[in-house]
Amino acid sequence: MSSASDHADVDVGDQPNRRMRIFRATDAVALGTDMMPLENVSETDALAMSGPTSPEEQIGAFVKVLFADEALGLSVAYSWFKPDFILPRHSHNADCAYYVISGEAHLGTEVLRAGDGFFIPAGGDYQYSAGPDGVEVLEFRTAAQFNMRLSGNSEAAWLRIAQNAAANHQRWRNEPPPLAAARMMGVGTT
Q1: Predicted TM-score (pTM) above 0.70
Q2: 90: part of which helix (H) or strand (E)?
Q3: Fewest C-beta in 10 Å: which of 89, 95, 119, 165?
């Protein structure tokens, strides 16, 4: 994925990847299963993800990749989770540092706000939810491609996620995007 930065390269050494590159919100690409394959999907997970929590039906999450470079082993993604959105328990096969831009991320008893962050090592299981105003997060990973490995989400956990998605469906549909997301969507900005 180099299109987001091809037009503004400045060499800083003798290695082709080692150069300054500009990436723009308007060039961000959707994070799909080609870049983040879903793994360890149990029968419970598969059944739960075929309903209102399926990727096709999920309107509570907006995730785009701003920058990814295989040779450098680096990616930066932007995530906007709408108010009260719940992620399932999962892990990735790459280290990741998360930076909260706006809103709140709820991790167990911890509430992280704008300017806060958290680090999850490769293979570390975690789950969080967006606060009452949603959350915008930048994700800095030590890989350009990485997995999403589901981690023992029970029927009760999926039911809670599905009920939350159903309860918030109309609200999420009408939620105005924050500026960064709006630029990535090409909505009312230049």
Answers
A1: yes
A2: strand 90-91
A3: 119
Query: Burial level of 57, CB count in 10 A (0-12/13-18/19+)?
Result: middle
Q: pLDDT per residue over 48-81, tens digit each?
A: 777 655 554 568 999 999 999 998 999 999 999 9
User: Whole-angstrom Cα distance, residue 22 to residue 66?
Assistant: 10
CA atoms within 13 A on the CB side of 40: 15
Q: Round to whole Å and give the CA distance between 153 and 90.
A: 8
Residues 138/180, Cβ–Cβ less than 8 Å: no
| Secondary structure element (H or E) that encloses residue 59, with its range | none
Residue 87 burial by CB count (10 A; 0-12/13-18/19+): exposed, middle or buried? middle
How many residues comprise the chain? 190
